[in-house]
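> example.struct
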């Protein structure tokens, strides 16, 4: 397969840059960034939960902290929703009945709240 000519590469770069300058491009690039951070955080959490030693939820090493700090340092605090979503997904699937998600929503599940 033949490599793209420099003219085509420049044209693609210009189109991408123009798309990112538009309002919808900024929104989509932000959403993609948040989803990528959430996915990386969730994947790191699943790896961390494989290292758990007490009922599958207690671990001495938590790799998602590194993912979260790296995202915040490299891209700033604007990607914090990705860390929150990734953490909620990881906590939801590692504990019974999705209790962390319901606690954040304000529902205790006991009938008294």
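> example.seq
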């Amino acid at each position: 397969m033949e490599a793209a000519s420099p003219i085509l590469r420049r044209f693609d770069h210009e189109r991408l840059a123009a798309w990112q300058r538009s309002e919808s491009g900024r929104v989509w690039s932000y959403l993609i960034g948040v989803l990528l951070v959430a996915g990386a955080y969730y994947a790191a959490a699943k790896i961390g939960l494989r290292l758990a030693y007490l009922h599958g939820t207690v671990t001495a090493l938590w790799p998602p902290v590194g993912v979260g700090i790296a995202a915040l340092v490299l891209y700033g605090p604007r990607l914090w929703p990705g860390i929150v979503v990734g953490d909620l997904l990881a906590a939801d699937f590692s504990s019974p009945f999705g209790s962390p998600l319901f606690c954040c929503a304000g529902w205790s599940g006991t009938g008294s709240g």
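> remarks
The chain has one domain: 10-105.
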